[in-house]
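Tutorial handout. Part one gives the primary structure; part two gives the three-dimensional structure as tokens.
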Amino acid sequence: MEDILLLNSIERYLEGRMLEEEKNFFEALRQNNPAIDQMVVEHKLFLHHMNEYADVENFRDSIHTIHSKLSATGEVRNSEEPEGFTGKVVQLWHRYRKVTAIAASIACITALFISALAMYFSPSVDKTQLERLSRDIAAIKANQQVTNNTLKEVAEPKIPKGAIVKTGGTAFLIDGKGYLVTSAHVLAGSGAIVTDNNGNEYNSKILSIDQSKDLAILKIDDKDFKPVKNLPYAIRRNQPDLGEELFTLGYPRDEIVYNMGYLSAKTGYKGDTTSCQLSLTANPGNSGAPVFNKNGEIVGIITTKQTQAEDVVFALKSNNIFKLIDSLRTTDTFFKNVKLPTFSTLKNMDRVSQVKKAESYVFFVKAYN
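Part two.
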């Protein structure tokens, strides 16, 4: 019964039939409860499919009515009539057969969606609500590395002899001198190496780990790395707006992967104000990945996803990078030379160009023991 009442409230909200006070309460509930927010998104999609299906059914009824009228006046003949028949209904069929096919597809989608809703509301075994998005990596010996799915012999391995890579994730440059940010839980080992999108591998040092914020800083320490004068993106202090389009680049595979979504809540899991909620696809390996807005500004770092709701992901807000660096500057002079990028040259570029410019500064992190 509670599920039915909730669905009724969602429909009233989507149709604009709520009073202002009730609407404000529901929107606050939606922001603080990722599961309800996901239900709103899914139900909106469901209603959209139902409306499309109804439109197609109405069209088919109209065709049937026209056919009946034309048959009654003798303007068309039945299928048993001689060859060469070119009645208007046949012409209409050729014109709208694609729509009829779409109708069948929508009917199938609707059935699947209703089944999914039934599964969603059915009782389920309690599970851990959040899943960290670090990635388990098959053992990589010190004399080998995997690059773009091709096994290559390496004359001088970057990881120490005998070390085994265990976990992985994503990191991105915050300073062209080689400073990187990732999620703390990605670094489940004593050391780490990072690999760029061209397969070039670099030694790195773990400089700082903040477990409370799930944030860590690495520094590339490798003679083969060439410092970058200016990063193409900026790191933004302010959070994006609700519904704002966002995209991310990460390493759920051995090659960089792009995903797009939007900000679905300004706070994270259970109202956590240090993070925000995104609606996009993320898989193990996306932890530490930068979240960009349309102007090529980093607004967050992906950390976890909710296991009981599809495409509900949480990201640490980017202002925490500034806070961590500011804190480290007061205790370690090493960080006084770190200059975070505050201007994006990606603004006004099309998405493909933005990705091409940014991907060289996003790295695959491999933590080893």
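Part three, for discussion. The CA atoms of residues 32 and 271 lie 5 Å apart. Helices lie at 2-14, 20-32, 34-73, 88-121, 319-331, 351-358.
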